[in-house]
Specification:
By secondary structure, the chain is of the alpha+beta class. The strands form 3 sheets. Strands 3-4-5-6-7-8-9 form a 7-stranded mixed sheet, with helices on both faces. A 5-stranded mixed sheet has the order 11-10-12-14-13, with helices on both faces. It has 8 helices and 14 strands. The protein folds into 2 domains: 6-142, Fructose-1,6-Bisphosphatase, subunit A, domain 1 (Fructose-1,6-Bisphosphatase, Chain A, domain 1); 151-260, D-Maltodextrin-Binding Protein, domain 2 (3-Layer(aba) Sandwich). It has helices at residues 6-27, 45-61, 92-96, 168-178, 191-199, 213-225, 238-241, 252-260; strands at 34-36, 42-44, 66-69, 82-90, 103-110, 113-121, 126-131, 136-138, 141-143, 155-158, 184-186, 205-209, 229-231, 243-247. Helix 1 packs antiparallel against helix 2 and helix 4 (168-178) crosses helix 8 (252-260). A hairpin with a 4-residue loop joins strand 7 (126-131) and strand 8. Helices cover 34% and strands 26% of the residues. It is globular and about 50 Å long.
Length: 262
C-alpha cells in the first residue's frame, strides 16, 4: 500500500515474522510432531508457535485490543470495540502434506466491522493487504476483481468438507449445479487464499460452508476493497452462518442464484 496505517504496518510485521518461522518448519515438514485435533483436522507445533508470535507482536503493540485466534482462547480487550481475528496457518493440512499453498491471515475488527486485513503467503512471498476505503493491494500493486462477464469463461473455488462433516452433501450438490456452467472449479485447501485470489482476479468467485470467522475475516475485506461482492450463502451474517459467497459484480447474483437453487 502507498500509505499504510500504523495498525496495518503492525499486522504486516507480525505476519512476516510468523512466516519466517513457518517456512523453516515447512522445510522440515516430515519431522514435525503432529497432534490430531479431530477427524481430518490437524494442528502442528508450527501452527501454535506462529499464533504465539503473532499474538506477541499484536498485543504488545495494541494491548487494549481483543483477540480471537484459531488456536487459543478468545480474549476480551479493554477496548471492547476492537479485536484482532487471526488464523496463524490457514491450509494446515496442505502444510503437513508438504503442499506449498498455505497462508497467515490477520484481520482487525472495529465495532463489528473488518477495517484492515493482511493475508501472507510465505512460500510465494505474496502479501495481500487492504484497509477500509483504501483499496486492495498485492506486494504494493493495486489489485481488482476480474472483469469477466460470461460464466463459461470463469473459474470458481470452494472448499470440500472432509469425511464425516454434515455439510458434504450440500457442497457436492453445489458443485454438480455449478460445474456445467463454468470453465472449472478449484479446491486448493486454504480459504483465506481463495478469497485473496478472488480479490486479485485470479478466481472469478468463491463459496464455502462451515468456515470460522478467522478463515474469512481478512479475505472479506480484500474482496470488497478490490471491487467485489461478498454475502452469506444462508442467513443474515457470514460469521453466524459460517458461510460465504464472493464474486465480481458481473456474476455475483447469477452465481448466488445457482448455489441457492442447487
Amino acid at each position: 500500500m502507498t500509505q499504510a496505517s500504523a495498525n496495518v504496518n503492525i499486522m504486516i510485521k507480525a505476519a512476516r515474522r510468523a512466516g519466517r518461522g513457518l517456512l523453516r518448519d515447512f522445510g522440515e515438514v516430515e519431522q514435525l510432531q503432529v497432534s490430531s485435533k479431530g477427524p481430518g483436522d490437524f494442528v502442528s507445533r508450527a501452527d501454535m508457535k506462529a499464533e504465539q508470535i503473532i499474538r506477541e507482536e499484536l498485543m504488545e503493540a495494541r494491548p487494549n485490543y481483543g483477540w480471537l485466534g484459531e488456536e487459543s482462547a478468545e480474549v476480551k480487550g479493554a477496548d471492547p470495540t476492537r479485536r484482532w481475528i487471526v488464523d496463524p496457518l490457514d491450509g494446515t493440512t496442505n502444510f503437513l502434506h508438504g503442499l506449498p499453498h498455505w497462508a497467515i491471515s490477520i484481520a482487525l475488527e472495529h465495532k463489528r466491522e473488518i477495517v484492515a486485513a493482511v493475508i501472507y503467503d510465505p512460500v510465494k512471498d505474496e502479501i495481500f493487504v487492504s484497509e477500509k476505503g483504501a483499496g486492495a493491494w498485492l506486494n504494493d500493486r493495486r489489485i481488482r476483481v476480474s472483469g469477466r462477464t460470461n460464466m463459461l469463461e470463469m473459474i470458481f473455488a470452494t472448499g470440500i468438507p472432509f469425511g464425516g462433516r454434515a455439510d458434504l452433501p450440500d457442497t457436492l450438490r453445489d458443485i454438480a449445479a455449478l460445474v456445467p456452467q463454468t470453465a472449472g472449479v478449484r479446491r486448493f485447501g486454504a480459504a483465506a487464499l481463495d478469497l485473496a485470489y478472488v480479490a486479485a482476479g485470479r478466481y472469478d468467485g468463491f463459496w464455502e460452508r462451515g468456515l470460522n470467522s478467522w478463515d474469512m475475516a481478512a479475505g472479506l475485506l480484500l474482496v470488497r476493497e478490490a471491487g467485489g461482492f461478498v454475502a452469506p450463502l444462508t442467513g443474515e451474517s457470514m460469521f453466524d452462518s459460517r458461510s460465504v459467497i464472493a464474486a465480481n459484480g458481473n456474476v455475483f447474483e447469477k452465481f448466488k442464484s445457482v448455489l441457492q437453487n442447487a
